[in-house]
Amino acid sequence: MSYFAYKNGVLHVENTPLTEIANQFGSPTYVYSKAALVENFSAYAQACKANGRDESTSLVCYSVKSNSNLAVLNLLGRMGSGFDIVSGGELLRVIAAGGDPRKVIFSGVGKTQDEMRLALSHDILCFNVESTAELQRLNDVAGEVGKQAPVSLRVNPNVDAKTHPYISTGLKENKFGIAYDEALATYRKAASLPHIRVVGIDCHIGSQLLDDTPLLEAFDRLTELVDQLSEEGIHLHHFDIGGGIGINYNNDQPVAVGDYLTRLFQKVDQWRQRRYQGAPIQVLFEPGRSIVGNAGVLLTQVEYLKHGDGKNFAIVDAAMNDLMRPAMYQAWHGVQPVTQRAGAPKTYDVVGPVCESGDWLARERALAIEQGDLLAIMSAGAYGMTMSSNYNTRGRAAEVMVDGDKLHLIRQREAASELFALESVLP
Ligand code: LLP
User: Which GO molecular function terms does the record list (predicted)?
Assistant: First the structure.
């Protein structure tokens, strides 16, 4: 269900009108629905349960990069979520939010020695290793600190995720993962290293996938590897299928999470029956967007309307520094007036105040609006705040979490003085 709906002509988040949020906290402000977050996480948790899984046979590791606010991490952690991280900073966030580091998996192609030390000191669940050089470095660092590093190799299954090229990661030409044909040799190498403990296999083929066919295909490709490894005496404890399930931005119809998980678990069960007398393997998921994407909007106010020759602009107080996705991927986000107005709509480009032609949030939208109106940029919960910047010395937006009719400020708006507090002039 949608927790963003009009009541008496005013767009609400759960039971709270967005006008109320603008009055209290100003704009631009990211606004999240707690109920939506809970529902989206529960879709994964319930599908695991419905397919007979417990924590020893399934673990949802929320992808922190999609929205890393402490309140979001804390809420998901309390629901039992693990976390997929890509930096030492994200690990420190998870810990600050009360998340369990022993449910953390560490992805990413460029882990530094310091990040490895930090993660080892917190006994994370697994390092998803993306190259031989990284494997070697991790072995050395683990040896220095007297530990064995738990490792999965991120294998590139070379399947086409059929999504935007910038967010497709499972093809040969991407920088991610270890090539399928090199995976066996790399596993043998990993198994021979004294400070590495091989525990799993991992892939992540892309993001905003509407169909689960490429994921199931990737699963099949990787099971062949697992079988070959097991014949060589290398037995894996978990299988990480990555994240990637998409959301509805613009009449998109993503596969339902429950349906995807059920199909995947059926495949897992058939495979384990066929090859391993039904012995289970723990399945890991790394969802981001499908948990937070449609749980958040970006609330913004129209500063000016500019009616030009054949082109109308709504200049708003949010910009590409707040929400990069349109500028970066030509991504489409719905735009809804917070208070509905009568009158004929005009066609507008919704743009920000930043000095770049690429600074737009939406193009050619029919809107009945006036100066001072509030707009909601929809589906902005994932890769919104986390990708924001301070370009043009703009403080980042505030973040508010709505819980029914209760409002929680979960990140204050940045003040300009904070933006240059770490800088100094020459003596
Ligand atoms: N696991 C790994 C290793 C990833 O690289 C990602 C996302 C995820 C999990 C989570 O994927 P999700 O379930 O959210 O699709 N900034 C882009 C998306 C970049 C995705 C990067 N990796 C956007 O705004 O569309």
Answer: diaminopimelate decarboxylase activity
With 0-12 / 13-18 / 19 or more C-beta atoms within 10 angstroms meaning exposed / middle / buried, residue 348 is buried
Rounded CA separation 234/191 (Å)? 7
pLDDT at 418 over 80: yes
Average pLDDT over residues 195-209: 97
3-state secondary structure of 403: strand
In this prediction the pTM is: 0.97
Give me the mean pLDDT over the 407-415 stretch. 98
Is the complex ipTM higher than 0.95? Answer: yes
Q: Which of these, 242, 256, 353, lies nearest to 44 by C-alpha position? A: 256
Mutate to test the pocket of ligand 1, among 63, 72, 167 (most ligand atoms within 8 A of CB): 63
CATH topology of domain 4-32+293-419: Lyase, Ornithine Decarboxylase; Chain A, domain 1 (2.40.37)
Residue 236's Cβ-side half-sphere holds a number of Cα atoms within 13 Å equal to 29
The answer to the question of whether 93 is labelled as a binding residue is no
Q: How far apart are CA 43 and CA 79, in angstroms?
A: 12
Burial of residue 147 (CB within 10 Å: 0-12, 13-18, 19+) is middle
Query: Quick one: tokens of 113?
Result: 């020695």
pLDDT of residue 167: 60
For a mutational test of ligand 1's pocket, the pick from 252, 289, 320, i.e. the residue with the most ligand atoms closer than 8 A to its C-beta, is 289
What is the pLDDT averaged over residues 324-329?
97
78 is in an annotated binding site: no
Query: CB-hemisphere CA count at 13 Å for 17?
Result: 12
HSE (side-chain half, CA atoms, 13 Å) at 385? 29
Active site residues: 355
Share of the chain above pLDDT 70, in %: 97
CB 47 within 8 A of CB 261: yes
CATH 2.40.37.10 maps onto the chain at 4-32+293-419
pLDDT at 163: 66
Tell me the average pLDDT across 164-175.
63
- Crossing angle (nearest 10°) for helices 70-78 and 34-50: 30
Q: How far is the CA of 168 from the centre of ligand 1 (A)?
A: 9
